[in-house]
Amino acid sequence: MRGRMIHGRRPDGELYEAAQDYDVHGRTIFAVDRAGLNKRLLDILEEMPNVKFFFNHKLTGADFKRRKAWFEFRDQASTSDRPAEIEIDFDFMIGADGAHSAVRYHLMKFTRMNYNQEYIDTLWCEFQIKPNNASNGEAAGSRFRISPNHLHIWPGKDGSFTCTLFMPGSGFAILEADPSLLPNFFDSFFPGVTSLIPPEDLISSFQANPHLPLISIKCHPYHFSSSVVIIGDAAHAMVPFYGQGMNAGLEDVRVLFSIMDKHAKGEVNDPAPRRALALEEYSAIRAADAHAINDLALQNYVEMRASVLSPLYRVRKFLEEFLSFWKRKILRDSGKEPAPGQGLNAGALSSTRQPAFAWDFGHYLGAPTLNWNSKPFRSP
Ligand SMILES: Cc1cc2nc3c(=O)[nH]c(=O)nc-3n(C[C@H](O)[C@H](O)[C@H](O)COP(=O)(O)OP(=O)(O)OC[C@H]3O[C@@H](n4cnc5c(N)ncnc54)[C@H](O)[C@@H]3O)c2cc1C
Questions:
Q1: Ligand 1, pocket residues at CB < 6 Å
Q2: What is the CB-side half-sphere exposure of residue 318 using CA atoms within 13 A?
Q3: Distances in Å between the alpha carbon of 238 and those of 126, 174, 203, 263, 362?
Q4: Ligand 1 centre from 240 Cα, in Å?
Q5: By percentage, how much of the chain surpasses pLDDT 70?
Q6: If exposure means fewest CB atoms within 10 Å of the residue's CB, which of 20, 47, 202, 209 is most exposed?
Q7: Mutate which of 97, 126, 238, 359 to test ligand 1's pocket (most atoms within 8 Å of Cβ)?
Q8: What is the DSSP string of 273-286?
Q9: CB neighbours (10 Å) of residue 238?
Q10: Using one digit for the tens of pLDDT, what is the confidence trace for 75-111?
Q11: How many helices and strands, by DSSP H and E, does the chain display?
Q12: DSSP 43
């Protein structure tokens, strides 16, 4: 995915698309299909002899000193309304149970965790752009109704796109009160959408799909003793505007296991004290990076929401790209070009050059023309 696509309408009424590349050197973001990735990971795990799956088990309590945990088990075949409760003993628990993590909640009772949670005033809701009905013999690409190489949305294999509307809660409240306003709303703020998604589909998706909040969570430490650690959104849920949430979770796994490998061997036979040291080290080094990506995601929200069309933003982007281009040329001419993979922009922003996962990320519908506060939508 090489950049973002801005959609709009000119004063004469004509629709336009304007691509903004992410990188002046042509580097791209790599995107994968989320459902496909989940399936592939499950398949790989299933082949491992030391892995067992327990679906429909919900953690309800944990004692990280006694190493006991309690789960509710929903047996699909059971006629009872009440789920069965089970108790298990464990050595080590990795809590990867998402933004509203039960593991984190119980961990807080065992460690002095600093915790910060922030909701932004934006909800999100998904819509679908169906694929073109390509007739036999047409190129596969023709099934995509808009460019598949830009971050308005991520195309499905069948040529469909999943799009997400991001909008302040007050805007959702108006449309929830009268969903028939939706087609007019899209024509006003996101010109062109109603030619891709029929008005009746916009209304039915808006009514059927949930309107979900966006949360940003920072906490520290991530572990207690040798018995538990939290990773992924459980440790650092972030707003999705940098497309880095899952990336950061996968990076947690890489960092955690590299540290655990480092502490795997020692003079003492008991693995628990070595694991305690590893978890201590993990919490110490991982928090700064996780907090930085949370902040960058929030900043990118501001950029994507409003700045991409502002003249000041475009001048800044031009200058950044101009400087980056000439800096690279000067370094290259002087034989000091950075090694492959070594970004030109040092510091925190270098993380933006990593491959990222991006899907369902409907910036098309969350397009910068939306300014709910300054230009309130009125019914036709
Ligand atoms: C609109 C949107 C767009 C996004 N786009 C991107 C993107 O483009 N790129 C990207 O990298 N990230 C993106 N993200 C972020 C990404 O979805 C998350 O960072 C990622 O899913 C976190 O993975 P996780 O495994 O930590 O948590 P989750 O995916 O939330 O998984 C948690 C799991 O734990 C289970 N669970 C919860 N509670 C319990 C319990 N009590 N007991 C047992 N199990 C439990 C849940 O059922 C679930 O299976 C986006 C997020 C949103 C909301």
A1: 58-59, 96-98, 102, 124, 164, 232-234, 240, 243-247, 249, 357-361
A2: 7
A3: 18, 27, 29, 30, 17
A4: 11
A5: 78
A6: 47
A7: 97
A8: HHHHHHHHHHHHHH
A9: 25
A10: 777 777 888 999 999 999 999 999 999 999 999 999 9
A11: 10, 12
A12: H
**Structural domains of the chain, ranges and CATH numbers in brackets:** 1-46+57-75+82-380 (3.50.50.60)
* DSSP secondary structure letter of residue 212: E
Q: What is the DSSP letter of 339?
A: P
The chain-wide mean pLDDT, for the chain, equals 80
Tokens standing for residue 94: 């990795």
What strands, in cross-sheet order, belong to the sheet with 57-63?
A: 57-63, 68-73, 84-89
Average pLDDT over residues 146-158: 53
* 56 CA to centre of own chain: 24
Among the atoms of ligand 1, which is closest to the Cα of residue 103?
41
Query: Given a cut of 90, is residue 137 above it in pLDDT?
Result: no
376: preceding bond cis by omega (within 30 degrees): no
Q: What is the mean pLDDT of residues 38-65?
A: 96
Q: Cβ distance 146 to 5 under 8 Å?
A: yes
DSSP code string of 243-308: S-HHHHHHHHHHHHHHHHHHTS--SSS-HHHHHHHHHHHHHHHHHHHHHHHHHHHHHHHHHHHTGG
pLDDT value of residue 357? 26
How does pLDDT run across 181-216, given as a tens digit for each residue?
999 988 888 888 888 899 999 999 999 999 999 999
Return the residue matching tokens 């020692």. 266
Q: Which of 149, 123, 179 is CA-nearest to residue 365?
A: 123
